[in-house]
Amino acid sequence: MTKPTKRTFSFEFKRDIVRRVLAGESKLGLAQEFDLSSPRLIENWLIIYRTEGEDGLRPKPKGRPRGTPASPERQESELTKLRRENERLRAENAYLGKLRALREQGRR
User: Which of 2, 51, 72, 73 has a 20 to 30 Å separation from 43 between CA atoms?
Assistant: First the structure.
C-alpha cells in the first residue's frame, strides 16, 4: 500500500477553479470533477483570493526567509562595539558588587 502524499496545485489551476466558482459553478461539483479531497479546499482558495487577490494563490517559498547581509553603512564601528561592551561590563560589575554587599549584610 502506498503512502498518500500531499498534492500541490499550480497557480493557474487554482485561479481557474476560483474563476469557475465565481462564475456560478458549485464547489462540490468542481471538487468531484477534479478529484479534490474536499470542497473546503476550494473554499480556502476563495478566501485567499478575496483577501489577497490572485497573487495570494501563487506558491509561497518554503522555509525561513534569507537574511539580508548588513550594509556597510549599518555596520557598527569597532569603537561603538567596545563602548557598548564596556557599559555592559560596568553594569554587570555593579550588580555583582551590590549582590556581594547584600550577602554580607545577611550574614551579620
Answer: 2
Count Cβ atoms within 10 A of the Cβ of residue 65 and give its class: 0-12 exposed, 13-18 middle, 19 or more buried: exposed
Buried b or exposed e, range 31-40, using 16+ CB within 10 angstroms: beeeebeebe
pLDDT in tens, 53-71: 999 999 988 888 887 666 5
Instruction: Name the nearest CA neighbour of 57 among 90, 14, 5, 7.
Output: 14
Nearest to 40 by CA among 57, 52, 49, 27: 27
User: Under 8 Å CB-to-CB from 11, ≥6 apart: which residues?
Assistant: 57, 58, 59
CB 41 within 8 A of CB 31: yes
With cell 495570494, the residue in question is: 56
Q: What is the dihedral of CA 7, 13, 18, 22, to 10 degrees?
A: -140
Report the predicted TM-score, pTM, of the whole model to 2 decimal places: 0.56
| Residue 98: burial class (beta carbons within 10 Å; 0-12, 13-18, 19+) | exposed
